[in-house]
Amino acid sequence: LKEENASLRSKINKLQIFSETQADKMRKLERKLEENKIKEEKEARDLEAMVQHVEQNLQLMTKRAVKAENSATKLKQENSLLQVQLKNYKTENEALRSGQSASLAAVKQNADLALQNLLTVITNSRSSIKQLLSGAESLQLVADLLKSIDRISEV
């Protein structure tokens, strides 16, 4: 009985040591799990902040694109109006050349003024169209970035 008792005590000691080792491992794993949870929460907050920032940029770029489109539309309308005026001036110029009442110098001055106005509108239109294209490229970049963020969050 003494031998059996000693044997059982030995086994109990070994099991206690094994149990303590397992408990230590368990505590370490729990700490590591908690650290990972904290890290993941921080990454999620950072990702959310980045998404909000991107959304704000997207809204701003959308406003800029709408403004550029409106500006381009106005410039196109002004361009059309000036083209009509130019056509009228040319018609008047032709009428004056064929012998009608006004002086050729006044007609030439009107045509030059219309041409200058037309060139100004064309220059402004080109600038607005370039801004619109730049805004569209920025919006595409933001859309691509949002797609990448979605992929990252899925991973």
UniProtKB/TrEMBL annotation:
* Keyword Repeat attributed: no
Cellular component annotations (GO), alphabetically ordered: centrosome; ciliary basal body; early endosome; midbody; recycling endosome
Q: Member of which family?
A: Belongs to the ENTR1 family.
GO biological process per UniProt: positive regulation of cilium assembly; positive regulation of protein localization to cilium; regulation of cytokinesis
Write out the transmembrane intervals.
none
- Name the record gives this protein: Endosome-associated-trafficking regulator 1
Keyword Plastid present in the record's keywords: the answer is: no
**Keywords assigned:** Coiled coil
Report the domain of life of the source organism.
Answer: Eukaryota
UniProt source species: Podilymbus podiceps (Pied-billed grebe)
Coiled-coil-forming residues are 19-92
